[in-house]
Amino acid sequence: MALIHSRKEKVHTLGQGIGGQSRDGIWLLDDDVSMLKALGRLMNSAGFIVEKFNDPATFLAKLQHAPCRVAVLDVWMPQMNGLEVQACLRRDSPETRIIFISGRDDPPVRQTALDAGAVAFLAKPFDDEVMVQLVRNAAAS
To answer: How many Å apart are CA 52 and CA 115, to the nearest integer?
Structure first.
C-alpha cells in the first residue's frame, strides 16, 4: 500500500511533443518516461486527456500557451526538482492544483510540499484508484 498524505498521450521533451492537446488541463511531469507512459495510460483509462512532460523547463514554458488545472509532479528530477517546479507554478499559475509523486518517502520534503499548497503527496508505487480519485477531486475543485 502506498503512503499517501493529502489535504482534503503527449510527452513533451526538450523542444518537441508527441500527441494531442489536453482539454482537461491535466499535466504530468516525470523524468522517467516509462512512468509517464504508465501514468498517462492510467489517466486515459479513467477518461482524462493529459499532457506528459519529461523536462521541467518545457513543462513551465507551456504555461505561456495553455492553462494547467492539475499538475502531477515527480519530486526528484535531475534538471529541477518538483519543489522548484511547485514554486514556479505558485508564482505563474496559482490556480493549479498539485499532486506530488516520489520514489522516496522523505517526510521533510513531503511536509514542505504540502505546506506550500500541494493537495497530495504519494509514494511510488501508489494505488491506481487513489491517484485517479485525487486527480478527479483536484480537477473538480
So the answer is: 25
Q: What is the pTM of this model?
A: 0.85
The mean pLDDT of the chain is 86
- Mean pLDDT within 80-105: 96
CA triple 106-45-100, angle to 5 deg: 15
> Look-up: residue for cell 517526510?
107
| Helix, strand, or coil (residue 87) | helix
How does strand 50-53 pair with strand 26-29? Answer: parallel
Q: Give the closest residue to 25 by CA, choosing from 130, 99, 96.
A: 96
Distance between CA 81 and CA 73 in Å, rounded? Answer: 9
